[in-house]
Amino acid sequence: MFTIIIPTHDRPVLLQRTLESLIAQTCQDFKIVIVSDSATYIPPYNHLAHFSGRFDYVLRCSGRPGPAPSRDMGQAIATGDYIIFLDDDDTFMPDHLAKLKARLDQGDRPELLFCDLQVQFENRAVTPPEPQGPTHKVSIADATDDSVYIRNRIPNSCIAYRRDVLDGVTNNPDMVIYEDWDFLLSVLQKGCTLTHVATDGVVIHKTPADAPENMRRGNSNEELVVKVMMELYIRHPARNMETRLARQALLASANLHFDLSHF
Q: Long-range contacts of range 54-60, CB-CB < 8 Å, 24 or more positions apart?
């Protein structure tokens, strides 16, 4: 049913936590592809033993570090009907895949499934990471195809792609941030549509924006946000004038004024 692709880089403790969340899944109809761009630690064999015959652990020795080429390598060997790109610091609640499978068992085979999420802030200066405050539930049920053309609304770990819609779509290895948004927009440009599943089984683990330990790249490259957004607006033209004007209004709210009537 599912192939779960996990790109990882020098975060063995976080990767093990991610795998523990997969071991706990009530639906085990999945295969795992882990692509590591570093050989500085021993693979988590004790965890992988739970997936005998259902995992590939790939050491990527070429290309620059980063998740984009690792996701592409994982996608190239994926065999499941649906592909999920799970970040190595995120986790699934135990019934997450079961709820996705129940939706798919309805028989209409949506092109893109997406779900709600939970956000847990944590202190990664200690091992294992220590939660900071309660988990916050976040609904993105109102996300539409057009709204994704305006803002990066759906975390990568919250999307299940039907495998055939990914034909010819790859990640851009030159992007420092938003390569997952660029990837999703490339799929939507093929005419695919999003289908929401009412579950919040994805847990996005974050450090505070100013924390130096294992910061997400989005936190450490804030100065690139507007530049990359503009590049994506040009690369992925909006489907209608309403969306183009909404893009323009979003930039204007940050006191940035551009004529986006053609993008």
A: 54/30, 55/31, 56/31, 56/32, 58/33, 58/34, 60/35, 60/36
* Widest pairwise Cα distance in the chain: 55
State the Cα–Cα distance between residues 95 and 141, nearest whole angstrom.
19
17-51 in b/e form (b: 16+ CB < 10 A) is bbbebbeebebeebbbbbbbbeeeeebbeebbeeb
- My answer on whether 122 and 31 are in the same domain is yes
d(CA 154, CA 238): 17
pLDDT (tens digit per residue) in 114-140: 999 999 999 999 999 999 999 999 999
Question: What is the Cα–Cα distance from 109 to 111, expressed in whole angstroms?
Answer: 6
Give the CATH number of the domain where residue 33 resides: 3.90.550.10
Closest CA to 147 of 193, 85, 100: 193
* pTM score, whole prediction: 0.92
Amino acid sitting at position 81: D
Residues 57 and 134 in one domain: yes
Q: What would the pLDDT profile of 65-106 be if each residue is shown by its tens digit?
A: 789 999 999 999 999 999 999 999 999 999 999 999 999 999
- Residue 92 and residue 10 in one domain: yes
The answer to whether residue 216 is domain-embedded is no
**Domain presence at residue 167:** yes
185-212: per-residue pLDDT in tens?
Answer: 999 999 999 999 999 999 999 998 777 6
- Number of helices and strands in the chain (H, E): 9, 10
Distance between CA atoms of residues 222 and 252, nearest Å: 18
Q: Return mean pLDDT, the chain.
A: 92
Q: Which of 153, 163, 127, 156 is nearest to 67 (CA)?
A: 156
